[in-house]
Amino acid sequence: MSDQSFDIVVLGGGSAGYAVALRAVQLGKSAAVVEKDKLGGTCLHRGCVPTKAMLHSAEVADEVRDAGHAGVQAELQGIDIAGVSAFRDGIVSKKFKGLQGLLKAKGIPVFEGEGKLTSPTTVQVGDQTLTGRNIVLATGSYAKTLPGLEITGNVITSEQALQLDWIPQRVAILGGGVIGVEFASVWRAFGAEVTIIEGLPHLVANEEESVSKQFERAYKKRGIQFKLGARFSGVTQDESGVHVSLETGETIDADLLLVAVGRGPNTAGVGYEEVGVQLDRGFVTVDDRLQTSVPGVYAVGDITPGLQLAHRGYQQGIFVAEEIAGLNPRKVEDINIPKVTYSDPEVASIGYSEAKAKEQFGEDRIETYEYSLGGNAKSEIVGTTGSVKAVRVKDGPVVGVHMIGRRVSELIGEAQLIVNWEAYPEDVSQLIHAHPTQHEALGETMLKLAGTPLHAI
């Protein structure tokens, strides 16, 4: 096959990678994508989309169990894991075909195969060399484990967990971050006994502390066990399952151990260092315009330091395409990128926590208010407790919003507009929030901070 040249060659076809290509062709550039697995990457095939499909199945199961509180007589007869898998895989398949069709319609060729960076302007795929005026690295991430902890048998990561064709009765989960608590939510709804092992003082420890504490209370109420400040020391396996040892000497017996200790960057063996791309602990170092140490070579998505989120990847992909095109785009900093944990209850946040805001702006310059969802009619109807907390600079803008409760992920859109547009509570308090909606909780929080509370005390 003859070599081909493009304005931009993207190494990796996940969220960040294909976003570069789509925006580039909108701007009149030619672009090609190289992908060794499936277009859509981890998010579509092994992460965001399939896990959220399973979480929906879990939510339906819990709704059936609790239907009596709404006057509906229903009985949960069981979980058909084959049916859950078919539901999940059907959604993934449909989105995959749609994405393939989108790139084809835009005239973006996808080169299937393992690509390797061979110079600042070339990527090798099999026997073909692709030349680009600019190269964008977007090779994504993988599920990490701990040193000496082998992923084998009934010690699994999230990728193997998605492919299980049986429902465990007892599960131990190593890690109380987003991935760990989401799978805990699924398995508990499916009837499993779940124990989370977390070395930090809280579950979802990167969130506002008051949110983490509410989350822990909610998980206790659901019967999900967790051990905080607990250090893992080892695991053995036999015909009865896994036996997880903690440094305290305690042992947790389970059918499975899910290792959910984060994700590492896929940067080994793809030619980065040989071409001069600087790495730090495996991550590609970039400047504030996402350019690597090699001029003309950019990096986006999970291989760059910071939040590992699909929508961050989209934003970075669009940013780099516009940067290459000379548009001088505005970069959204990680602090102002929305984060969501799709468990039950959900957690959604953006911006500074109260503690971080005080560090940034000064102890005496920060004002907060936390509105309980107990005062919100729609939250009562859907059977959730929780809260909306806003952090503002005194006489200044809102710099953080932190929420917990069922369906609060749907509130993050308004919250991110408030924070990213540097709105004052006084600006938002004049706007009307439909009744009864959970959005009213955001409105009530802003009314209180503006000094004009309606239902807030």
Automatic annotation (TrEMBL):
InterPro entries: Class-I_Pyr_Nuc-Dis_Oxidored, FAD/NAD-bd_sf, FAD/NAD-binding_dom, FAD/NAD-linked_Rdtase_dimer_sf, Lipoamide_DH, Pyr_nuc-diS_OxRdtase, Pyr_nucl-diS_OxRdtase_dimer, Pyr_OxRdtase_I_AS. Residues 6-317 form the FAD/NAD(P)-binding domain. Keywords: Cytoplasm, Disulfide bond, FAD, Flavoprotein, NAD, Nucleotide-binding, Oxidoreductase, Redox-active center. It is found in: Cytoplasm. Binds 1 FAD per subunit. GO terms for molecular function: dihydrolipoyl dehydrogenase (NADH) activity; flavin adenine dinucleotide binding. NAD(+) binds at G175, G176, G177, V178, I179, G180, V181, E182, E198, G262. It catalyses: N(6)-[(R)-dihydrolipoyl]-L-lysyl-[protein] + NAD(+) = N(6)-[(R)-lipoyl]-L-lysyl-[protein] + NADH + H(+). One of its GO terms (cellular component) is cytoplasm. FAD binds at K52, G115, T139, G140, S141, D302. NCBIfam families: lipoamide_DH (TIGR01350). The active site is a redox-active disulfide bond. Belongs to the class-I pyridine nucleotide-disulfide oxidoreductase family. This is Dihydrolipoyl dehydrogenase. The lineage of its organism: Bacteria, Bacillati, Actinomycetota, Actinomycetes, Micrococcales.
